[in-house]
Design a protein that fits this description.
This protein is α+β, with helices and mostly antiparallel strands. It is built from 2 helices and 4 strands; from the N terminus they run βαββαβ. It starts with a strand and ends in a 5-residue tail after the last strand.
């Protein structure tokens, strides 16, 4: 299953200013595979305080379990997507 994940936060909770939040967030990304989640691609826009990911997961439940500890760090939007051949 493929998912597009969009994470955003405010300037007040930005990783640049709140190192502990960044450590928690990126620490969670590092253990994604423990939940059956593979991060295929990650990009960001620091001016808008947004991070975008394409992830592959065995189950939607695994995605929720993986994200649960960081859900209150900002706004997380998860959308199921399908790969298209052009």
């Amino acid at each position: 299953m493929l998912f597009h994940l969009e994470y955003s936060h405010t300037a007040e909770t930005c990783f640049k200013n709140k190192k502990e939040i960044g450590e928690l967030f990126f620490g969670r990304l590092r253990i994604a595979e423990e939940f059956g989640v593979t991060i295929e691609n990650i990009v960001g826009n620091s001016m808008e305080h947004r991070i975008f990911m394409l992830i592959e997961a065995e189950t939607a439940e695994g995605v929720h379990e993986w994200l649960d500890p960081i859900v209150d760090l900002g706004h997380i939007k998860v959308t199921s997507v399908v790969e298209k051949n052009l």
